[in-house]
Amino acid sequence: MNQISLRLEExxxxxxxxxxxxxxxxxxxxxxxxxxxxxxxxxxxLIRGITPITVLHEVTHRLMISEAQERGFIRGTRPAQQLxxxxxxxxxxxxxxxxxxxxxxxxxxIAPVSFRDVVRGLELxxxxxxxxxxxxxxxxxxxxxxHHIASADxxxxxxxxxxxxxxxxIQTAGKS
Length: 176
Hints:
The structure is a single chain. The chain has a 6-stranded parallel sheet with strand order 1-6-5-2-3-4, sandwiched between helices. It is of the alpha/beta class. The chain has 8 helices and 6 strands; from the N terminus they run ββααβααααβααββ. The protein has helices at residues 21-28, 33-43, 53-70, 79-84, 87-92, 95-105, 115-128, 132-144, and strands spanning 5-7, 16-19, 48-52, 109-111, 148-150, 163-166. The protein has one domain: Rossmann fold (3-Layer(aba) Sandwich), CATH 3.40.50.1010.
């Protein structure tokens, strides 16, 4: 087992890596300079970042909820349900759209997810005990021949054959 997580700053120029949702979230909510710097390196072409479309969906959803919470439109539990019941609030939100579109400006490649990726993800979930989206991420990495991942999730350190890069500067106030 790998069991080693390197810092995001240790990603070498020229590396191709998959970027998990939490890297984008920590960047956009200002909780990690490491995530910001990694994404800047992607924007400048020093690193080639790729993310599955499922991650882009997750990031958009989480940014929408985060914006609604930050603006005081929703509080407490079940934020997605609160927004679903209040489309007028969703209409007032705009920052999440700007941030999502900024990902494309960062020169991040968006990888499609095939049915085969989902099936392989099911197998990987059984092997590693990963949640669905994390397993699909692994399946896409496997299919694409990519062996590097940027994620704050410690679980990726347990996967043999991949190099896991983590932000070490996550500010833990709140939960994203």
